[in-house]
Amino acid sequence: MADHKSALKRIRQTETRTARNRDRISRIRTFVKGFISALGTNEVESKFAVAQSEIQKGVTKGVLHKNAASRKVSRLNKMLKASLSK
After folding, report:
1. Residue range 45-53: average pLDDT?
2. What single-letter DSSP state applies at residue 4?
């Protein structure tokens, strides 16, 4: 265990930030699952927009890399187009 005051503060900050980042990632996953469950319905486009927005927020908050977010959005868009073409 750390003895210095600054090290103890860093431990507290890390725990807080870890919890916040975990919540953000969980929120992104929830919206992506909502989009996937809406495939084939008439809500799919609005669900895609919300999921895409959440993924981009993850980039701005620093929990997702820009390229990883772009890849995820691209894959969701591919699913959307396949769903709409049926």
Report:
1. 97
2. S
Q: List, as one string, the DSSP characters of 7-54.
A: HHHHHHHHHHHHHHHHHHHHHHHHHHHHHHHTTTSTTHHHHHHHHHHH
Looking at CATH, the fold of the domain delimited by 5-85 is given as Methane Monooxygenase Hydroxylase; Chain G, domain 1 (1.20.58)
pTM summary value: 0.88
Q: What is the DSSP letter of 86?
A: -
Nearest to 51, CA basis, from 85, 77, 84, 78: 77
Mention every residue, 6+ apart, whose C-beta is less than 8 A from residue 82. Answer: none
Q: Is the pLDDT of residue 1 over 80?
A: no
Buried b / exposed e along 61-85 (16+ C-beta atoms within 10 A): eebbeeeebeebbeebeeebeebee
